[in-house]
Design a protein that fits this description.
By secondary structure, this protein is an alpha+beta fold. 33% of the residues lie in helices and 33% in strands. The strands form three sheets. Strands 4-5-1-10-11 form a five-stranded mixed beta sheet, with no helix packed on it. It has a four-stranded antiparallel beta sheet with strand order 3-2-6-9, with no helix packed on it. A two-stranded antiparallel sheet has the order 7-8. Helix 3 packs antiparallel against helix 4.
């Protein structure tokens, strides 16, 4: 009996060695230049922004640990396609939304449209229907392109109708949330 108990303990120890201890987020983006990627997510009501990653075989690799699956956003600072330069500040564009869990997750896409990137891995991401995620990404893209065009076309002292319509489209595509 003692031998079986020791074998059982050994088996659990070996399984524990192979268990995922935290998340591994691997990111590969076409058209990636000298941008600063950042991963933001919440744990225990606190917001974290992670910009530290390793490079492994052409992948940016973020590692960490969350207590439970949590909503996360991945974006790029410094990419001119993902912000609108305004007089007093920059207006940020959309980010990639997904769920971060203590599993391996891979993100692939284009740096200029990170919000359209594909997400593979993580049980919660698998439960989020790809058609729903694709539609949300499409709406984010439409809103962003309309806002960039309206801002580019806007002249101070001119008609702000296009800018207001673009902001309304963005708000409507987010479900009316502010």
């Amino acid at each position: 009996m003692k031998r079986y108990f020791i074998l059982l303990l050994l088996a659990f120890s070996l399984l524990n060695c192979y268990a995922q201890e935290g998340f591994t987020l691997k990111v590969k983006l076409d058209n990636f230049k000298d941008y600063k990627p950042y991963l933001s997510y919440g744990v225990d009501g606190k917001r974290f922004m992670d910009t530290v990653y390793a490079t492994e075989n052409g992948w940016m690799v973020f590692k960490g640990k969350v207590k439970e699956p949590t909503y996360a956003r991945l974006s790029l600072s410094g990419n001119p396609e993902l912000f609108i330069r305004m007089a007093k500040h920059d207006y940020p564009g959309p980010a990639l939304n997904f769920f971060l869990s203590n599993e391996e997750i891979k993100v692939t896409g284009n740096a200029d449209k990170i919000y359209m990137a594909s997400v593979e891995g993580g049980a919660v991401n698998k439960d989020w229907p790809e058609t729903l995620r694709a539609r949300q990404n499409e709406l984010n893209g439409q809103s962003w392109e309309a806002l960039k065009k309206a801002y580019h076309d806007f002249k101070p002292g001119g008609d702000s109708t296009a800018l207001k319509k673009a902001k309304k489209l963005e708000n409507d595509n987010r479900g009316g949330a502010q």
